[in-house]
Amino acid sequence: MSGPLVVLVGPMGVGKSTVGQLLADRLGVSYRDTDDDIVAEQGRTIAEIFVDEGESAFRAIEKAAVHRALAEHDGILALGGGAILDAGTRALLAGQRVAYLSMDVEEAVKRTGLNAARPLLAVNPRKQWRELMEARRHLYEEVATAVIATDGRTPEEVTEAALDAL
Ligand code: S3P
C-alpha cells in the first residue's frame, strides 16, 4: 500500500495534531498536517483565507494540498476537519489506513470553546457543531478503517487506542 502509513481524520479540535505527533513518535515516522502545508504555501492563516476568499476558495486550496500530501507523505498525515467533504478526496482515501478520531457535540463545544480562530464556529458554536457533526459524521465513517472515540480520553490514551485499532 503506498501513501501515508496512517491518515487521521475527524473534526477540528479533536486532537489530530497532538495524537498525530504522538503516533509518529511511537512509530518512528514523520508527522505532517495539511493545514500547516496550506498556511506555509499561502503565507496566511486559514482564518485569513476564509475572510479574503471565502470557504469554497479555501476548499479548492485544501483539496490540492491534501492530494499532494497523500501522494508525497509516507508517515502520519492529519487532514483538516472538512477535507472529507470532497468526493475526490474520499475516493483517494479508499485503500488507505484511515483513523477517524471522533467526539460528541458537548465534548466539541468544551474543547473548542469560543475560539474565533476557527471560522466555522464564529457565531453559535453549539448549534454550528451540531450541524457540522450531522453533515459530516457519515463522511468520516465512510472513509474510516478505524473509529477512535476520544471523549474523556487523554491524547496518550487515544494514541494507545489508535495503535491497538490500526
Ligand atoms: C475546518 C477545519 C480546520 C481548518 C478549517 C476548516 C473544517 O482544520 O481546515 O478551519 O471545515 O472543519 P482542523 O480540523 O485541523 O482544525
From TrEMBL:
Entry keyword Glycosyltransferase: no
Compartment(s) of residence: Cytoplasm
GO-annotated molecular function: ATP binding; magnesium ion binding; shikimate kinase activity
Pathway per the UniProt entry: Metabolic intermediate biosynthesis; chorismate biosynthesis; chorismate from D-erythrose 4-phosphate and phosphoenolpyruvate: step 5/7
Top-level division of the source organism's lineage: Bacteria
InterPro entries linked to this entry: P-loop_NTPase, Shikimate/glucono_kinase, Shikimate_kinase/TSH1, Shikimate_kinase_CS
Record-linked PROSITE patterns: SHIKIMATE_KINASE (PS01128)
Catalytic activity: shikimate + ATP = 3-phosphoshikimate + ADP + H(+)
Predominant localisation class: cytoplasm
Residues that bind Mg(2+): 17
GO biological process, any: aromatic amino acid family biosynthetic process
Entry keyword set: Amino-acid biosynthesis, Aromatic amino acid biosynthesis, ATP-binding, Cytoplasm, Kinase, Magnesium, Metal-binding, Nucleotide-binding, Transferase
Protein EC: 2.7.1.71
Cofactor list: Mg(2+)
UniProt enzyme class: transferase
Positions bound to ATP: 13-18, 118, 153
UniProt cofactor note: Binds 1 Mg(2+) ion per subunit.
Functional summary from the UniProt entry: Catalyzes the specific phosphorylation of the 3-hydroxyl group of shikimic acid using ATP as a cosubstrate.
Classification via PANTHER family: SHIKIMATE KINASE, SHIKIMATE KINASE 1, CHLOROPLASTIC
Family, per entry: Belongs to the shikimate kinase family.
Oligomeric and partner information: Monomer.
Name of the molecule in the record: Shikimate kinase
